[in-house]
Amino acid sequence: MTPDELLTTTRAVRKRLDLERPVPREVLLECVEIALQAPTGSNRQGWHFVFVSDPEKKAALADLYRQGYDPYASMPRPTYGEGDPRGERLDFVSESSRYLRDRFHEVPWLLVPVHHGRVDGEGVFMQAGFWGSLLPAVWSFMLAGRARGLGTAWTTLHLPFEREAAEVLGIPYDKFTQGGLMPVAYYTGSSFKPASRLAAESVVHWESW
Questions:
Q1: Which pTM was predicted?
Q2: Could you say which residues of the chain have pLDDT below 50?
């Protein structure tokens, strides 16, 4: 794949996760090696990658995800104007997210990206620097996985129960913050195509808002 193809076809994979095919640790480590080249504030490299394959731990994390997912899924859905690509894909996204909700515990690996420190209650300056030092690395992991036939999906609905997840995984809650919960598996089928998105002109501002 060219860089443009990789960037425009790395999708949130839910229904096309191969729940049966094992993913070797060596492949995960290759992806992490690439992820560690991502930029990080002040070169602190405070990231950690917690991979989980133990069935009991996966079941516990999946249960926490469902506890966050179910109230979220029952909220009123957003409305979009006619022809808006977000509205056209809304039913599909809801269906695929429900599929993952029901099968999260069956995925070969779950990944919890973690960053050193906590920014609970901090202002936008601290928040931006903190998350800006973790999210690029996790996105790099997702891209590296895509190039190796792996599907991923960044989810955050277990985070209302972050403390409970920390207890399951032995993460020191007062010193480390979880950034999400990600299924990692080989994907089925041949490839992906670019998604329908808003036109660039609708989100670009020149010189001022």
A1: 0.95
A2: none
